[in-house]
Design the sequence.
């Protein structure tokens, strides 16, 4: 850790502006996904001409001091210090070596107080004092002893404090703008999606979730949130209004796109308190077309001793809005019409007009049981495998299960099959397998594979 | 019950927010808790995990609350939510107001935070004379805290709790923003005042459930009675009394991100000048910092960290599974107490006369040695109505009993939908022995084109007084081919299977040769 002490400036003649912290700063904060935020802090401060030390209290406790930049009319920065030598009784004593303190002892029994002036000789695993001609160890006799210091050393502070020494061309009150990066502030998106299976639509609400554990509260902040990280370019967002976009229930934040990032600006100034999770709505889409798909994906030709439950995948497309990364939670209505949680998954930064397929769980009543029925090496580099897949459906309605059989290599081809397959890509075959209500479908196929 | 509190008007400064009405929703009028389990949960494991700070398991809590909302901007505080709430999952329905923001504050009031937030304020220092009891009162400005408190007594700088004298600080008010408990609140703007019934729902952790089955074999040995029990467990510190509870069977996708907030804890210390002597001779060693009030409440029970009790509710009724998406939802028939740190069991399945077939199996593939190994006893049921069952069977465990209290064995149960085979392995059958050995192991061909040939001999001996059905299983892999076998096998998901009957005292030898390229 760097240790920057103001003592370095000793000898410089400068005035110090006290009470700078009492000025309520105008704050703007830009929060990134990766636990990083840019704080812009503008304070109106009287600055005398010449060299002055400006102190900024109430800055983030997780400030990255090397990123501090200060600007103000007619000000040039001489040096910046970040003091984190915290004020404690122990530190006070350490800084008092060679100086005089007052020692006040209370004699047990009589309650009589004896006050003496002492010089601190050393503070090493105990305090050695010189009182007149006597050398003593502080509180060696166990008698209650108060130690009274006459002042607090200048560079010991209750909280880490940023100070900047500036050179002002002329005296006068002006806006001083401070900006810095800090940790402890982060955001992500949380999506609430109510899926109506019968109608094949979902309702999608998005919340920006801000978390502040930076050790400082920020009052009345203009807040911007940046989605995206370097190297993950986002498509241009179409922010034009659409019929499916409504503002009901939530206040949608403005969304703009700058360079490769998406930026959301909160509509009102907010107070981001210490140890707080704050959520602001930014998205409310109704009637998004969505479908539920049963899926089983495998990359091998092998048997499963127990039936495996098919994945339940929710397919939908976000036509109008880009979705910043976060968690999407899906709800469905139960028999009585109450919305109940049915699963969640992570979504990455998703540009508008993307197709999204999210696994939300596994179907209790739809199972798949693969059996490797025959496998033979036809030649040195060629294997012929026969698979038998048993798809079972215990529901009162027929379903279709999407099988994705991966694991095909060079010259991989279907020799025979009981249902027509389609090639998804060079390595994957796809079957849409209809399974009757309360019934079973057996799919058999033979694949020639070589490498 | 709702209390409407209008704080005194604040002096609106340049950036101060306008004064806001505060509405407190003290408790829900009604709660429904839906408990999920992810994959196979074992009750024994559930009980074992309860010793720790158990936070797995997911529940969906759905509350009804009534709120008196004033017109204009206000803050609604929701009290008495589950302590394991995952705040970002909170949802409010039925509020005819614009939601500006939703906050979850966990800056908790504790001795340390009280001091920390008082830095720069004036407090009162009270010193008490140990002998006379006389108190000396002084005004002091807190200059630093809580890691060692430095006080400014009108130009005299002193430390708190370093002198060996009884002293304490008295505060005139609680600093803004400190709360007794983590609090969920909404900032809303309502067009008009009114009394509203709203729904609050959220995900909470620390609740879980498992299914346990008991199979009792009938004396005839042809059928069994199957009962199923749901075990509900609440490891959280808050309980719910007399509420409808539902459990959901099936595997839910979760991200692992749903965790309750762990409020950061600050410790107050005195950080006196470095001196060991100080502590040895200190007449009043400072007590360890008291935990925040919430924690004291939690630790009140001596068996903190352990479940206090298990309640078994006997019911002869079955719970019919409902559909929730692709899961099965079991609604408990009666309102129940989901008390903190407690498990509870409720019957959900009662199926007498379920026919079963007893068979003995052995997985060939490794040598058994000359003495052989016992076969595995398997009870084969069919989960269909014709098979005497035909009910969804949530994952859990099953215990099999014969003729009263004799435990035959225990096995895991996977989520089993209607129509699937249902097999229970009950354990080793001492009277049915299997000797398996390799009789040939050869490599032929050329480098890059090796052919491995393996021959095996398996002898099965039925030492029982009755005939048995036996299945010998040899797993199949890609590239494995049968060259010869003493009798034909069938291909099943378990692999190559030879199934046959063996009379009392009868034995059978199976030989086969496989080639792997």
Sequence:
């Amino acid at each position: 850790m760097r240790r920057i002490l103001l003592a370095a400036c000793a000898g410089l003649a400068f005035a110090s502006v006290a009470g700078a912290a009492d000025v309520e700063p105008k704050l703007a904060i830009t929060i990134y996904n990766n636990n990083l935020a840019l704080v812009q802090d503008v304070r109106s401060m009287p600055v005398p001409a010449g060299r002055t030390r400006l102190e900024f209290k109430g800055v983030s406790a997780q400030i990255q001091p090397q990123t501090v930049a200060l600007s103000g009319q007619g000000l040039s920065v001489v040096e910046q210090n970040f003091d984190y030598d915290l004020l404690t009784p122990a530190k006070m004593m350490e800084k008092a070596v060679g100086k005089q303190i007052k020692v006040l002892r209370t004699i047990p029994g009589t309650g009589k107080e004896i006050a003496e002036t002492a010089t601190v000789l050393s503070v090493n695993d105990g305090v050695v004092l010189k009182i007149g001609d006597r050398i003593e160890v502080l509180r060696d006799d166990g008698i209650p002893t108060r130690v009274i210091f006459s002042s607090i050393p200048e560079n010991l502070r209750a909280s880490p404090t940023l100070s900047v020494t500036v050179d002002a061309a002329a005296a006068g009150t002006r806006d001083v703008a401070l900006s810095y990066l800090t940790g402890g502030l982060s955001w992500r998106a949380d999506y609430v999606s109510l899926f109506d299976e019968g109608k094949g639509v979902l309702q999608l609400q998005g919340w920006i979730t801000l978390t502040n554990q930076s050790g400082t509260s920020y009052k009345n902040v203009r807040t911007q949130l940046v989605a995206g990280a370097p190297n993950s370019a986002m498509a241009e967002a179409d922010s034009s209004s659409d019929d499916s976009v409504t503002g009901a229930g939530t206040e949608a934040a403005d969304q703009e796109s700058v360079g490769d990032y998406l930026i959301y600006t909160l509509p009102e100034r907010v107070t981001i308190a210490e140890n707080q999770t704050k959520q602001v709505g930014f998205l409310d889409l109704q009637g998004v077309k969505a479908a539920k798909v049963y899926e089983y994906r495998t990359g091998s030709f092998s048997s499963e001793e127990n039936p495996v439950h098919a994945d339940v995948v929710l397919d939908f497309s976000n036509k109008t809005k880009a979705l910043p990364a976060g968690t999407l939670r899906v709800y469905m209505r139960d028999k009585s019409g109450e919305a109940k949680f049915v699963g969640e998954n992570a979504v990455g930064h998703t540009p508008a007009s993307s197709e999204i397929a999210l696994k939300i769980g596994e179907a209790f009543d739809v199972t798949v049981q693969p059996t490797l029925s025959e496998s033979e090496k036809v030649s040195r580099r060629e294997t012929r495998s026969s698979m038998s897949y048993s798809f079972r459906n215990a529901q009162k309605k027929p379903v279709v299960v999407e099988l994705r059989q991966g694991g095909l290599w060079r010259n991989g081809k279907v020799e025979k099959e009981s249902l027509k397959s389609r090639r998804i890509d060079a390595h994957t075959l796809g079957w849409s397998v209809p399974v009757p209500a309360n019934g079973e479908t057996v799919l058999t196929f033979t694949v020639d594979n070589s490498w | 019950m709702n209390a409407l509190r209008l704080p005194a008007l604040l002096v609106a400064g340049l950036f101060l927010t306008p004064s806001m009405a505060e509405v407190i929703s003290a408790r829900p009028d009604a709660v429904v808790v839906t408990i999920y389990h992810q994959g196979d949960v074992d009750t024994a494991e559930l009980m074992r995990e309860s010793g720790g700070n158990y936070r797995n398991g997911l529940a969906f809590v759905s509350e009804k609350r009534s709120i008196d909302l004033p017109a204009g901007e206000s803050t609604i505080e929701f009290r008495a939510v589950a302590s394991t709430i995952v705040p970002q999952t909170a949802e409010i329905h039925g509020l005819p107001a614009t939601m500006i923001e939703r906050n979850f504050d966990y800056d908790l009031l504790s001795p340390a935070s009280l001091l920390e937030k008082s830095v720069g304020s004036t407090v009162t220092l009270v010193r008490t004379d140990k002998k006379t009891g006389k108190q000396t009162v002084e005004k002091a400005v807190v200059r630093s805290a809580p890691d060692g408190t430095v006080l400014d007594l009108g130009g005299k700088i002193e430390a708190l709790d370093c002198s060996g004298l009884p002293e304490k600080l008295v505060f005139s008010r609680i600093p803004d923003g400190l709360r007794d408990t983590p609090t969920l609140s909404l900032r809303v703007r309502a067009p008009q005042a009114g009394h509203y019934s709203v729904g609050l729902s959220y995900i909470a952790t620390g609740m879980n459930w498992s299914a346990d089955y008991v199979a009792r074999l009938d004396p005839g040995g042809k059928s069994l009675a199957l009962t199923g029990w749901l075990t509900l467990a609440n490891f959280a510190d808050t309980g719910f009394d007399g509420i409808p509870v539902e459990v959901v069977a099936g595997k839910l996708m979760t991200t692992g991100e749903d965790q309750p907030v762990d409020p950061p804890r600050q410790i107050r210390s005195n950080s006196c000048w470095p001196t060991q002597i100080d502590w040895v001779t200190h007449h009043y060693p400072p007590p360890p910092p008291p935990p925040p009030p919430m924690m004291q409440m939690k630790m009140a029970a001596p068996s903190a960290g352990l479940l206090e009790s298990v309640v078994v509710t006997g019911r002869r009724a079955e719970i019919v599974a409902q559909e929730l998406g692709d899961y099965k939802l079991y609604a408990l028939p009666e309102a129940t107490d989901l008390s903190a740190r407690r498990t509870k069991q409720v019957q959900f399945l009662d199926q007498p006369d379920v026919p079963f077939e007893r068979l003995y199996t052995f997985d060939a593939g490794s040598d058994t040695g000359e003495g052989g190994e016992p076969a595995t006893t398997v009870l084969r049921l069919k989960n269909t109505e014709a098979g005497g069952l035909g009910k969804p069977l949530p994952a859990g465990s099953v215990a099999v009993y014969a003729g009263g209290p004799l435990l035959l064995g225990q096995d895991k149960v996977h989520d089993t939908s209607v129509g699937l085979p249902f097999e229970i392995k009950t354990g080793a059958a001492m009277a049915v022995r299997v000797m398996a050995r390799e009789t040939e192991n050869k490599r032929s061909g050329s480098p890059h084109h090796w052919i491995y040939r393996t021959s095996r001999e398996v002898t099965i001996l039925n030492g029982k007084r009755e005939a048995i059905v036996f299945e010998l299983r040899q797993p199949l892999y890609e590239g494995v081919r049968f060259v010869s076998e003493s009798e034909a096998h069938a291909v099943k998901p378990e692999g190559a299977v030879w199934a046959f009957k063996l009379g009392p005292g009868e034995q059978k030898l199976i030989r086969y040769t496989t080639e792997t390229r």
Remarks:
- Chain B touches chain A through 110 residues (CB under 8 Å).
- The domain at 356-383+420-516 of chain B is CATH 2.60.40 (Immunoglobulin-like).
- Residues 43-49 of chain B form the longest helix (7 residues).
- The first strand of chain B starts at residue 2 and ends at 5.
